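Could you help me review a protein record that somebody else here produced? What it holds is a sequence and that sequence's fold in token form. I have pasted the whole thing underneath without changing anything:
=====
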Amino acid sequence: MRATIAAFLPALSEPKTEPTPPMRRLLPTARSFLTHSGQAAVMAGVAVLAMAAAPLSVAGDIPPADGYAKPEAPPVAAVAEPAGPVTRLIAFAEPVRGYAINSAFGMRRLPGAAARHHDGVDIAAPTGTSVYVAAEGRVLRTGYDAGGYGRFIEVAHPNGMSTLYGHLSRVDVASGERLVEGERIGLVGNTGRSTGPHLHFEVRRGDRQVNPTKVLGRDFEVEVATA
């Protein structure tokens, strides 16, 4: 009986321990792994932020800009083009002011004569009416033509044209004289081959007469002479 009780008592005094399931023994390990993994993730994030905030390069890591070969720009050759001529305008105005043309340029027939070409225009005006140069220029010649122009003046202009003023009663300029725009050069008359007081006015380009009405009232560009 005592042996039976003695054998039974140790069994009662020692608590019965059941084996721990495998999952319960792994829980501390998994918890530790998750903890370390979270810490590692935080540290990795801090490292990324630190790299983003850090300068892109550290002195000495990248060679100075002078160390690189720079492309050379092609040489530029400046070519100076010759400047164009300096020009100005001259205007042609009516040689007799306040009187209209009464005989046009072109073919015409005078009383008792055959039809012939009229090389200029006629402007009827009283004898003694002022005659003005049509545009600035230089007097080429003055003279008297009894069978034609009577007393006349011929003026060369900077645009290459010339003008002629005929049947004058008086000439107020001399050959070679420089004339400014609007300067008076003589007086209307009835000299030479004329049927009454008037100014015969011609415009010439080279050796040909042109219609004065295509010139009067127009501006012409001329080149300015340089020293």
